[in-house]
Q: What sequence folds into this?
């Protein structure tokens, strides 16, 4: 380990709470969840997303409507709530909040948003209480900055993440996974990368088995960041959802996502999404439990920023030295590495030397010109790498950081 890990922090603004009348979506759940997390860590307030940031995921016509407040009745009908300058600001703040939390994830391992998850917002219109797609804005911004190359959305709200799927259709670097109740809104479902529709009344065991079955495919995508939409409207008794998860089942769901990210040292950003219990305190408790779980997940890792295969910002990285560069064939960009510890296909290596630093995900290797899945101490493995390395450069494996206590 080098340096000191920065702790995760909670992103929240009191302005997320807006009076929209007597509505199934009680915006005060955000403040109640934040209150439950007081004392569990530092809080930071986001800035409203800028027009430019919103344009990364939305059409100019829609952004102008949201910023000017000039909504047509049809827009509000799809939104399913009354629009106001306060609603506009709240949703711009939430988009800014998910952007900030995603940046936190790259710098702290985990980004925690006490808000966000507006997955029904499309590029050009609102739907289902979702005005601006904060998830899409954050992803588009980090991809555009070159800070990530591949990203996975894990959307476990009871409703399909239709807006997110539509916005990223045809973008193979963004894997959109949604597991939801099949028989409820939205109709029709949009096609994401992986959609799993569950039957009405699905309970904990069946739900968790399905999640375990599908998560490996999501992680095979090799994302540099996972954006989790952790809707708690999967809870039994939810006014809008018809699944039957217990509070304990929801926590197990969250732990599965956190553990998968921890195992792969993949930064994780958590957004809240839906939750419509008749008892708003229960919704807030469930949201707070998700964030507390993620804060303690031990994805303490790593601060590296990808830019054409180079680390452009150092930081904390859990790592273990596994060998040194023995030889480099510059004409074919192949590095030979003498191992002092085992290395296998799928490992992430960091090669440090005079020419700079390189993070390399091992997709294939050879030993004595024969393809191999794994090399052991004493072996000399050959890998194709993305930039020049030199004999003597040290090779580290990015390892699973110890879970926090
Ligand atoms: Zn929902």
A:
């Amino acid at each position: 380990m080098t340096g000191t890990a920065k702790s995760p922090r909670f992103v929240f603004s009191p302005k997320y709470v807006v009076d929209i009348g007597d509505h199934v979506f009680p915006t005060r759940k955000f403040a109640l969840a934040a209150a439950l997390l007081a004392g569990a860590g530092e809080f930071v307030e986001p800035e409203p997303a800028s027009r430019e940031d919103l344009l990364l995921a939305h059409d100019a016509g829609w952004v102008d409507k949201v910023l000017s407040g000039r909504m047509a009745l049809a827009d509000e009908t799809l939104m399913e709530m009354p629009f106001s300058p306060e609603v506009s600001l709240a949703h711009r703040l939430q988009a800014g909040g998910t952007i900030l939390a995603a940046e936190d994830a790259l710098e702290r391992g985990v980004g925690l948003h006490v808000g966000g998850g507006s997955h029904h917002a499309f590029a050009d219109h609102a739907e289902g209480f979702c005005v601006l797609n904060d998830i899409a804005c954050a992803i588009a911004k980090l991809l555009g900055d070159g800070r990530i190359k591949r990203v996975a959305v894990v959307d476990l709200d009871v409703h399909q993440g239709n807006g997110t799927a539509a916005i990223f259709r045809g973008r193979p670097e963004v894997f959109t996974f949604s597991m939801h109740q099949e028989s409820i809104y939205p109709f029709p479902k949009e096609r994401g990368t992986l959609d799993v529709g569950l039957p009405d009344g699905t309970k904990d065991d069946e739900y968790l088995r399905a999640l375990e079955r599908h998560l490996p495919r999501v992680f095979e995508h090799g994302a540099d960041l996972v954006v989790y939409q952790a809707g708690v409207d999967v809870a039994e008794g939810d006014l809008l959802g018809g699944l039957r998860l217990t509070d304990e089942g929801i926590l197990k769901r969250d732990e599965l996502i956190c553990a998968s990210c921890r195992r792969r040292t993949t930064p994780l950003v958590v957004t809240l999404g839906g939750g419509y219990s008749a008892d708003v305190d229960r919704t807030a408790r469930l949201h707070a439990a998700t964030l507390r779980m993620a804060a303690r997940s031990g994805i303490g890792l790593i601060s590296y920023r990808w830019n054409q295969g180079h680390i452009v910002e150092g930081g904390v990285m859990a790592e273990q030295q596994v060998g040194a560069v023995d030889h480099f064939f510059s004409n074919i960009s192949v590095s030979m590495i003498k191992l002092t510890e085992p290395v296998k296909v799928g490992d992430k290596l960091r090669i440090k030397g005079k020419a700079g630093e390189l993070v390399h995900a091992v997709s294939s290797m050879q030993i004595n010109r024969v393809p191999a899945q794994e090399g052991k101490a004493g072996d000399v493995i050959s890998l194709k790498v993305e930039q020049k390395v030199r004999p003597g450069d040290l090779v580290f494996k990015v390892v699973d950081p110890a879970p926090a206590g």
The CA atoms of residues 54 and 126 lie 13 Å apart. The first strand starts at residue 10 and ends at 11. The pocket of zinc ion is lined by residues 157-159, 231, 233, 273-274 (CB under 6 Å). Residues 318-398 form a domain with the Elongation Factor Tu (Ef-tu); domain 3 fold (CATH 2.40.30.10).
